[in-house]
Design a protein that fits this description.
The protein contains four helices and two strands. By secondary structure, it is mostly helical. A two-stranded antiparallel sheet has the order 1-2.
Length: about 120
């Protein structure tokens, strides 16, 4: 029998105890600290910026992702928040992939139009 160290709840196995702790005693992040989701999205945004995939015009996406990540850190058991977060992140990354596809198509068009090799041959 496993026992919750916070409230004394008795559980038949560790998985049930872990579920109990997540739902009954969620870990709270202090207001002045970045939680794990906010830390992770800051890294992701930083890399997208470094690669030139997020620009000033993308500030609304940046802010939406950071707000959702921060809210998730405060309420990690909300399925609705997780869905919104995943969808928003997916849209940002998908938009980035579409931009890469457009660039690849433009480069292919330039390469096919350009003369390659020795012009005299």
């Amino acid at each position: 029998m496993k026992v919750c160290d916070v409230c004394g709840f008795e559980s038949p196995h560790g998985a049930a105890l872990a579920s109990h702790k997540r739902w009954r005693h969620p870990v709270t992040v202090p207001d002045d600290a970045d939680g794990p989701n906010l830390q992770a999205i800051k890294v992701t945004i930083g890399e997208l910026e470094r690669l030139g995939r997020l620009e000033l015009i993308d500030e609304a996406w940046r802010r939406a992702l950071m707000t959702l990540a921060e809210t998730l850190d405060r309420n990690p058991t909300s399925a609705n928040l997780w869905r919104e977060y995943r969808e928003t992140l997916s849209e940002v990354l998908q938009a980035d992939e579409e931009a890469d596809d457009e660039l690849a198509a433009a480069l292919a068009a330039i390469n096919s139009a350009a003369k390659v090799g020795n012009a005299q041959a």
